[in-house]
């Protein structure tokens, strides 16, 4: 019996969708309010829906390219074979950079949140967070699946409790910024795209999902389920935040790097409810943990494939070290703003989560048998859409760094 047939039964779509959603939700939930403060409700929502569609499609394009390879093949193997060593080398740099900087952002934010909740020094809290959380990734994909389901369930409960407290206080005038009748919103959406792209940056986990299910179609459904769940969370979250905290109040939050603890402090003050603020803090902690283990799993599997480490205890320990120690050390010695880190991740992620998947799908269709079996929908138009979106996201990021886009600090 083949490896593909042996893997065909077992894992549920709920588990896979939970992994995809959990990878997405941490970055998005915690970075989007600050990055979307300029675009505000309508334009932020449009940007999120567009990003979700493109990023789901690009993940399916990866699955299409992967169908020519064994189930243990990862991004490195596929890209090198189809696009060549030079493209693969550059892609490898961006993949590791994105995985590392996301882990770095989660580690830094976890320390700050745990410090505000417990009084423990933030650096010590970050070390404890990494040591405990990364053990789940070291153990197995199934362990991440089980933890992701638990965390998504906890996040859903705490989200409902916290957001219900926010939802009953939503002020339509604040939500739609009616006091600023002449306000400009659309230009800010361009600066938001790198963070929005990162918010759907589950692509580290595509190879893991395919290997987990043993074939592409169920992995496709898990990806779609996960991105839809993430989009639902994002829209409800943004409406709840933007309906309570006035647009002009985001200036100080963004000025301090958009760190999660600063946003939570501003939100707690705005709603004047200790119970809601505590619940939102618990939700944020779970969101960071779920994204940490999800991104950690994808980066872990990628590095194991790239470096050829075995899947035994010794091999997994070496993969664990190269995956988690560098971002931990950077977090301890060189911390900086959460939104800034996510923005850099988004620009780099556009390479391997948009441009490279589109190129892989185009190459895949030229191979013998490339138009048989699983294919991402959309044809050449879909490939063009993903390429253009990725290119614009990179362009907007560097335009923002150069000061050519409006800053999301509201006066």
Automatic annotation (TrEMBL):
Compartments where located: Cell inner membrane
Pfam family, one: Trp_Tyr_perm
Topological type in the membrane: Multi-pass membrane protein
Record has Lyase as a keyword: no
Main location: membrane
Signal peptide annotation: none
Key word Cell inner membrane present: yes
Keyword field: Amino-acid transport, Cell inner membrane, Cell membrane, Membrane, Transmembrane, Transmembrane helix, Transport
Residue intervals passing through the bilayer: 12-31, 43-66, 87-107, 113-137, 149-170, 185-202, 222-242, 276-298, 342-360, 381-405
NCBIfam families for the chain: araaP (TIGR00837)
Purpose of the protein: Involved in transporting aromatic amino acids across the cytoplasmic membrane.
PANTHER family the record matches: LOW AFFINITY TRYPTOPHAN PERMEASE-RELATED
Family per record: Belongs to the amino acid/polyamine transporter 2 family. Mtr/TnaB/TyrP permease subfamily.
Protein name per Swiss-Prot or TrEMBL: Aromatic amino acid permease
Native source species: Marinobacter xiaoshiensis
């Amino acid at each position: 019996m083949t490896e593909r047939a042996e893997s065909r039964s077992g894992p549920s779509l709920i588990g896979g969708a939970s992994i995809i959603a959990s990878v997405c939700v941490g970055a998005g939930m915690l970075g989007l309010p600050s990055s979307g403060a300029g675009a505000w409700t309508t334009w932020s929502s449009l940007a999120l829906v567009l990003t979700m569609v493109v990023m789901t499609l690009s993940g399916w394009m990866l699955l299409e390219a992967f169908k020519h390879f064994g189930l243990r093949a990862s991004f490195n193997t596929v890209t090198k074979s189809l696009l060549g060593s030079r493209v693969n080398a550059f892609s490898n740099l961006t993949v590791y950079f994105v995985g590392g900087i996301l882990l770095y952002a989660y580690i830094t934010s976890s320390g700050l949140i745990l410090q505000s909740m417990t009084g423990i020094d933030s650096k010590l809290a970050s070390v404890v967070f990494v040591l405990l959380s990364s053990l789940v990734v070291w153990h197995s994909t199934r362990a991440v699946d089980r933890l992701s389901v638990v965390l998504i369930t906890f996040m859903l409960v705490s989200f409902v409790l916290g957001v219900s407290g926010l939802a009953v206080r939503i002020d339509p005038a604040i939500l739609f910024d009616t006091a600023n009748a002449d306000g400009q919103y659309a230009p800010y959406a361009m600066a938001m795209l790198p963070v929005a792209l990162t918010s759907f940056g589950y692509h580290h986990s595509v190879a893991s999902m395919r290997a987990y299910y043993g074939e592409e179609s169920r992995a496709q459904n898990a990806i779609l389920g996960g991105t839809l769940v993430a989009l639902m969370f994002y829209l409800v979250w943004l409406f709840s935040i933007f309906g309570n905290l006035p647009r002009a109040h985001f200036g100080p939050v963004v000025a301090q790097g958009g760190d999660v603890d600063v946003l939570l402090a501003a939100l707690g003050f705005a709603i004047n409810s200790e119970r809601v603020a505590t619940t939102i803090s618990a939700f944020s902690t779970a969101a960071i943990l779920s994204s940490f283990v999800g991104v950690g799993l994808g980066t872990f599997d990628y590095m194991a494939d790239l470096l050829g480490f075995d899947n035994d205890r010794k091999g997994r320990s070496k993969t664990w070290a190269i995956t988690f120690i560098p971002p931990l050390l950077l977090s301890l010695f060189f911390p900086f703003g959460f939104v800034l880190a996510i923005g850099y991740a988004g620009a780099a992620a556009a390479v391997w989560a948009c441009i490279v998947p589109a190129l892989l799908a185009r190459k895949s269709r030229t191979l013998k048998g490339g138009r048989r079996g699983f294919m991402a929908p959309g044809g050449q138009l879909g490939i063009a859409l993903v390429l253009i979106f990725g290119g614009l996201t990179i362009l907007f990021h560097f335009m923002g760094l150069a000061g050519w886009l409006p800053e999301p600090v509201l006066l």
